[in-house]
Write a structure and sequence with these properties.
alpha+beta; two-stranded antiparallel ribbon; 2 strands; elongated; FAD; flavin adenine dinucleotide binding; electron-transferring-flavoprotein dehydrogenase activity; oxidoreductase
Length: 112
Amino acid sequence: MVDKGLRVRSPSGSAAQLPIFAAGDITNNSMRLSFKAQEQAAVVAANLKAEIVGQGKSKVYSQGDKIMMVVPVGSTGGTGLIMGWTPWSAMVKMVKGKDFLISKANSTISAK
């Protein structure tokens, strides 16, 4: 369980003795999506820096309520949700159907 600053808390709400932060699908945030993990990582990095340096205000993470996800279904189409709009199957195929965006994985993981 994490608080709004992504600091790990016990189920009772108390903080650990040492500052421990978490990001990604290990948190109790409901949207477990890769782009949300990237947003969380920026908050964790800023809060770790503030903790180590001993100055600066902690950042707060807000996941929002907008979802952007496209899912190929086979090689001929797919479905998804983009800010409340359902994309056409052919659009999902064109954007993500060729390689499931695997070609972008390295730059996403290495934060480039």
